[in-house]
Specification:
By secondary structure, the chain is mostly helical. The chain has one domain (2-71). It is built from four helices and no strands. The protein has helices at 2-24, 28-33, 39-60, 63-71. It is elongated. The protein starts with a helix and ends with a helix.
Length: 72
C-alpha cells in the first residue's frame, strides 16, 4: 500500500534524525526549521510521529490482509 511506504519512509527519516541527536547532538529538523519550538518543526515532528503510529499497524497485519490489500 502506498500509504504504508510513505509512513515507513517518514519513520526512517525520524529515526535517522534521532540518531543524529544521540550521536552528534544535532537536530536536523530544528536546524532546517529554525528551532525545535517553531510551528514548522512541531508540524514535522507531528507528521513523523503519526507515521510511526501508522507503522505500528504493520506489526499486527496478517500476511493474508497485506496481499488482499495490494490486489485491491
Amino acid at each position: 500500500m502506498f500509504l504504508d511506504k510513505i509512513a515507513l519512509a517518514l519513520s526512517i527519516i525520524g529515526g535517522l534524525n534521532w540518531g543524529c541527536i544521540g550521536l552528534f547532538n544535532f537536530d536536523l529538523v530544528a536546524f532546517i526549521s529554525g528551532g525545535s519550538g517553531t510551528w514548522l518543526a512541531r508540524i514535522i515532528y507531528t507528521i513523523v510521529g503519526l507515521a510511526a503510529l501508522w507503522c505500528l499497524t504493520l506489526l499486527f497485519r496478517t500476511e493474508d490482509n497485506r496481499t488482499r490489500q495490494s490486489h485491491a
